[in-house]
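Quick one, tokens below:
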């Protein structure tokens, strides 16, 4: 074992000195080129070459976790590694080396994204080539770091049937979600961090008729719905000189000129919500987005806060939201997994006409007071009302 560690170390050093690109073929050739490498069998050579390639160009000891389809998050706290396989964080046993090795790993991953990570710029938020989201913080900002947070990317979105199988969406409610998409109702997928908002939105966008064009606007590209006509726009941060920023607000305006049938903002987190509401109020039906919110009832307040960033007064924001957004789909993360917690509508309430969230269906409670209102919306758009809204087979 020690001999193979030494061999791997020599090969890594060779690539560092020669400055040669560490392609898989080049790494295999380098391993075989070492005196003791020629004594290894094909399987041993490939295994060692994969390890060296991961150390030089990949995520090193974290590669196996990122390749595991059940893993959603990989977190590194100094030298400790925690992973989430959908049921909460669990500490795992893996050898990362010392603090210096973890720092080099973080810097290499940042460099692979074209980003800088050093004492002058001690944190970075970037995306790896395979779609994995990377966030890294170096000491002394990270008091016991370095810290790495890696959110894995699922290459193939779940189908609605798979979400039902996993228990994320009850089967009768799945038909309701499909009806909302088919009726071109605009909706927000809400929930806390890691609650499955992007997963559900990815799935629902795959239900959009193939004759329609989806234009995605995202801060970081995460949405890849199974659909033949999808175009994406991604925000850009400034370069080291502080120039070149392309904000989400700019991209929403560009998207409106791209003939979208469905305009989607991957995550509403700032002033772009004003442009999205404006777009949904000018004939762009069926749009969607995600929004961080602790509960459906917090959605109006969150929209207010974001609207103020875009200079939209409270009353105007509520008027825009009432006309633009019909449904709110709230996700919740539990010990057993990520669940669709409720389906609601936005409706004006009171003499001030401020919008409120009214439940259509809630997990554990069944149908809510807005079930008939949503049924009427579907009928007005010539979409059959799913049995769940009639109380047939309503899941509690």
């Amino acid at each position: 074992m020690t001999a193979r560690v030494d061999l791997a170390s020599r090969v890594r050093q060779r690539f560092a000195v020669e400055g040669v690109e560490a392609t898989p073929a080049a790494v295999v050739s380098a391993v075989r080129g070492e005196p003791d490498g020629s004594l290894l069998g094909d399987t041993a050579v490939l295994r060692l070459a994969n390890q060296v390639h991961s150390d030089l160009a990949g995520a090193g000891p974290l590669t196996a976790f990122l390749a595991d389809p059940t893993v959603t998050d990989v977190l590194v706290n100094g030298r400790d590694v925690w992973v989430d396989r959908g049921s909460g964080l669990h500490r795992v046993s893996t050898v990362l080396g010392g603090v210096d090795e973890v720092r080099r790993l973080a810097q290499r991953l940042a460099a692979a994204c074209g980003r800088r990570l050093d004492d002058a710029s001690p944190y970075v938020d970037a995306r790896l080539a395979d779609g994995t989201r990377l966030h890294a913080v170096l000491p002394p900002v990270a008091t016991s770091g370095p810290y790495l947070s890696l959110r894995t990317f699922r290459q193939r979105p779940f189908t609605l049937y798979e979400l039902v199988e996993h228990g994320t969406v009850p089967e009768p409610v799945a038909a309701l979600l499909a009806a909302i998409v088919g009726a071109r109702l605009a909706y927000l997928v809400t929930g806390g961090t890691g609650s499955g908002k992007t997963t559900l939105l990815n799935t629902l966008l795959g239900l959009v008729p193939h004759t329609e064009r989806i234009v995605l606007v995202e801060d970081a590209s995460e949405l890849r719905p199974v659909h033949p006509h999808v175009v994406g726009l991604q925000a850009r941060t400034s370069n080291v000189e502080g120039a070149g920023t392309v904000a989400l607000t700019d991209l929403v305006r560009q998207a409106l000129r791209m003939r979208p049938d469905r305009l989607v903002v991957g995550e509403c987190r700032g002033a772009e919500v004003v442009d999205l509401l404006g777009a949904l109020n000018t004939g762009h039906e069926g749009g969607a987005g995600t929004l961080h919110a602790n509960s459906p009832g917090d959605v109006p307040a969150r929209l207010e806060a974001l609207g103020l960033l875009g200079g939209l007064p409270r009353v105007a924001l509520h008027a825009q939201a009432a006309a633009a957004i019909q449904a709110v789909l709230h996700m919740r993360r539990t010990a057993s997994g990520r669940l669709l917690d409720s389906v609601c509508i936005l409706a004006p309430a009171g003499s001030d006409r401020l919008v409120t969230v009214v439940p259509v269906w809630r997990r554990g409670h069944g149908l809510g007071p807005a079930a008939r209102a949503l049924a009427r919306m579907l009928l007005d758009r010539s979409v059959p009302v799913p049995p769940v809204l009639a109380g047939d087979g309503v899941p509690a």
